[in-house]
Amino acid sequence: MTTPTTPRQLADRFVHDLAALDPSVATGLGLNPHDDRVPDLSPAGYQAKADLAAAVLSDLDSLEQSSTHGSWDALEARCATLLRDRLGVQLEAHSAGEHLREVRNIFGPPQAVRQLFSMMPAKTVEDWAVIARRMAQIPQAYRGWTETLTEGTAQQLFAAPLQIETLIDQLTEWADTQWWHAFVSAGPPSLQGELTAAAETATAGTIELRDYLQETYLPAAQGTPNAVGAARYRLNARRWMGADLDLEEAYAWGWSEFQRINAEMQEVAELILPGASPVETMRHLDEHGEIVEGVEAVRERLQQMMDRAIQDLDGTHFEIAEPIREVEAMIAPAGSAAAPYYSRPSIDFSRPGRTWLPTMGRTSFPMYDLVSTWYHEGVPGHHLQLAQWVYVAPQLSIYQTSLGSSSGATEGWALYAERLMDELGYLDTEARMGYLDCQIMRAIRVVIDIGMHLELPIPDDSPIAPGQTWSSELANQFFAAHSGRPQDFIDSEIIRYLGWPGQAISYKLGERAWLDGRAAARAAHEERGEVFDLKEWHMAALSLGALGLDDLTRELSAL
User: Taking the CA of residue 263 as centre, how many other CA atoms within 13 Å lie in the half-sphere pointing to its CB?
Assistant: First the structure.
């Protein structure tokens, strides 16, 4: 690749260099379909990525000092700002040793390694041969990670026991359910010998990691608190949101949003089951609302929802390019966390965007709480934004449309998408109850995520434990009292927040940024005597690429 002369060229070179270091990046983006490497999760692997980030920032300094700086347009300047923000906070987190204790129940290193296989091509014999070679290296990846956790132990940097115990349970489930064997069973008969041997090796590596966590790491980590404190929380919030937050303001705003949504839920509950509380109403809908029976049946239903949304919204509120029109509803593999999620398409769209539903062993699915969730995960939520980014990557950069993203902008859009479908009348009364349940969950996330990690007092007007200090037990109790989600989901969520500080607040605070940006853009058009075209605004907004939350509202307001 030629020497970069602009931030966008530098950003794209960084993506390719990082893909050469980290095969999870290559596979995620579809840059090297036959890459059979596993990620280097050792301290040396993390250091190599930190060194690359530092070198890119140094090169960016040189570019900004060059004579071409004055000719940069707004797009180049936006890319430079993004690189500085994202790589800068990554280096801060590395220096603070965050990677040495990154144990959680979702999107942690062991889960990311397993997720690689769901993103790999699996159509030809050659594809499956690559899968077999990569799967046979699972012990290598997991041993590298144990080296990293051991380095954390030496520095007295530990994950909390709750996170470790949860991961031990997940790894046990992967081994007991023979997940690796089940995955390769779909491979061609001619390779079953190699695939079965690779699955055996991967299972052994999974058990080896589980035993290390159980016998060595967990005893050493005893006494590590769940709460990370204000300093670590601020750093991690910047990692996931691209924002330097006023945590007191965010906490107070989250509480006011909880109260507002709770009042609206009570009004909707009265329409469905007069005299009942919102939670009682949702328990009623669990048994007497619309229910889809069967795992494959619910997958088909979610697929139909996304297909219909694409058909209805294209040309009215969005312009949906042909490659974006394909999105697949999938069932998440066993041993996943409880929350649904989305995986992006490859950069050439050879692998489509996919939504994933964890069943948690269920075969019966009430629909009231899935409708708005699939508008969030699929269309017009994550898929429409992140697939549009892939579509406009040639005009921006691969970095701005993939690795540079932060949760505030993406989760904020997805929550905005739920609200948009409510505004457009797509939610009947039952689905509105589910939508409001999703909204109140995100408001509760702001309150209890900040509250637990900073050990704040519970507001005096709380119906539960006013004035007491937030703990995981009180947060669980509060969540359960105001949510229609099943208890196993709530348990999983509390563990998630404690292991991923600062990420859970990105949904509601991100939505606020999107709504503020839309309102400001509308007001600016009206002040100029112009008609505000929502479809035009949506497409311009979705074509900006990644932005930190601190920059998002300003950019949206100017569209």
Answer: 5
User: Could you please report the per-residue DSSP string of 197-255?
Assistant: HHHHHHHHHHHHHHHHIIIIIHHHHTT--S--HHHHHHHHHHHHHS----HHHHHHHHH
The predicted-structure confidence for 282-291, as pLDDT tens digits, reads as follows 999 999 999 9
**Is the pLDDT at 70 greater than 70, yes or no?**
no
Final residue in a domain of this structure, among 476, 499, 522:
499
Shared domain for 364 and 433, answered yes or no, is yes
How would you classify the pairing of strands 341-343 and 364-366?
A: unpaired
171 and 249 housed in the same domain? no
555 within domain boundaries:
no
User: What residue spans of 294-355 are helical by DSSP H?
Assistant: 295-313
Alpha carbons 385 and 398: distance in angstroms, whole number: 14
- Residue among 221, 241, 210, 219 nearest 101 (CA): 221
Q: Are both 279 and 418 inside the same structural domain?
A: yes
Pair 289, 438 in one domain? yes
Q: Is residue 429 part of a domain?
A: yes
Question: Do 180 and 289 lie in a common domain?
Answer: no
The residue assigned the tokens 């669990």 is 286
Listed residues 449, 464, 499: the one ending a domain? 499
Residues 188 and 280 in one domain: no
Quote the CA–CA distance of 43 and 531 in Å, as a whole number.
55
Given a contact cutoff of 8 angstroms between Cβ atoms, the answer to whether 344 and 386 are in contact is: yes
Q: 1: pLDDT confidence band, cut at 50, 70 and 90?
A: low
Dist. CA 182–CA 172, nearest whole Å: 15
Question: Number of helices and strands (H, E) in the chain?
Answer: 24, 5
On whether residue 255 sits in a domain, the answer given is: yes
Identify the domain containing residue 74 by its residue range.
7-226
Token digits of residue 361:
């062993």
**How far is Cα of residue 110 from the mean position of the Cα atoms in its chain?**
16
Cα–Cα dist 241/235, whole Å = 10
Q: Are strands 327-331 and 353-357 parallel, antiparallel or unpaired?
A: parallel
Q: Which of 413, 449, 470 minimizes the C-alpha distance to 251?
A: 449
E strand or H helix at 102, and its extent?
none
Is residue 40 within 8 Å of 428, Cβ to Cβ?
A: no
In a domain, 528, yes or no: no
Do 389 and 262 share a structural domain? yes
- pTM, whole model, 2 decimals? 0.94
131 token code pair: 């899968």
pLDDT tens track for 10-62:
999 999 999 999 999 999 999 988 999 999 999 999 999 999 999 999 999 99
* Pair 242, 384 in one domain: yes
Count structural domains, the chain. Answer: 2
Strand (E) or helix (H) holding 362 = none
